[in-house]
Amino acid sequence: MEPQQNRGISRVLEKLRNSIRSGEYYEAHQMYRTLYFRYLGQKKYNDLKNMLYEGCLLLLDADQKGSGADLALLLVEVLNQSEDKECAIWTPKLSTIFLKIGRNNTTERDAFLVQVFKWTSQNSSQGNAPFHQSIAKIYWEELNYSQARYHYVHSQDGKACAKLLIEFQMVEGYKNEVDLFIAQAVLQFLCLRNQITASQTFNTYTEQHPKIKKTGPPFLLPLLNFIWFLLQAVETKKLQTFAILCEQYQKSLQRDPCYVQYLDKIGQIFFGIRPPQEKRSGGIFGSFLDSFIGSLDEESDDDLAQGQQKPSTSRQPIENSDLD
């Protein structure tokens, strides 16, 4: 019975292929949708997924972007309904679909991407890292630097991310933003708890960017030194070092208002700093540093209770020559 059923499916697929080759795109699209509902009701998920994937590619290759994208969305629905968790198998195929939909069909492409990431997020709230990496490469090839950067930050490919950032900075950035491009990326990696890729990205960027003199660390740009020290502090998880760094480099960190928010999150993740309860005097940065000092005071009280002496605040001086 099963071989006969497979022969029937093969005949249907061949008929659909011939319809597309003959230019009968509308008829083929409607037949795919009819079979979608039929197979879905019969829970023939594997046959349905393979059929939709092939039909999607055939229509996209025939420049029927709307119909192809429609089948692509149906494919993702089936992946969800069948509870298929084989990301390693399907994400390369979904990346191919994304590429073939093309940059000129942003509405269909974006809708498809949103649904795919919902499906890949079943195992991780940040989505599937290899899929992010594949999408980043496609955007990079299309010179869509901002989107490529976003997806690389959610991947685990620090070397490629750094190379993208170098090109992005040199093509669209200002001369005085060499350090800003890498600083923001590293801070975002750390907020995503991805310190390994953060370090890999920073090292590759500072080693290969032609505008960064190969003398560091220490670097000529203070913000690069801050990031380098921060990565060391994250490794050791020493709260006092983190607090001192943020205080000593306050001027550099004020170049981008987002840095305080990133560092607040990093402090909570890696150093156990409590979230700020309210705004205090001195603006957002003053409140930020006050939360460090409060955490340090608590840490010192615990140490003293155990008969251990440690500095109680972040106010212990560091030589500027050691930091800049």
Automatic annotation (TrEMBL):
The keyword Membrane does not apply. One of its GO terms (cellular component) is cytosol. It is found in: Cytoplasm, Cytosol. Keywords: Cytoplasm, Transport. The keyword Transport applies. Gene3D superfamilies: Tetratricopeptide repeat domain. Belongs to the GET4 family. This is Golgi to ER traffic protein 4 homolog. It comes from Hypothenemus hampei.
